[in-house]
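Predict structure. Chain length: 87.
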Amino acid sequence: MTQIAIQMPAAVAMPRGAVWAASFFSALAHAIHTLWTTRSRTDPALARGREAAQVRRYASQVSHTDPGFAADLYAAADRFIDAGESR
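Prediction complete.
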């Protein structure tokens, strides 16, 4: 004969201030997100710089296996920035 004991966990009350802390964190995260997206939309030079930085990061990853392609990517990122400055 085999017996199996099933235990039910005791109910745990929500910690005091948890709702307030969650609301505060949510509002703070929303405010930071709003500031971040507003800033990137209003400054086209900043957006171009971010895009060029992404290309340069990719070029850095590829440089170990294909240095010629990485050099082309670095040059393209530089041309992209230069084209934005001439506008």
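Summary: The chain is about 70% helix and 0% strand.
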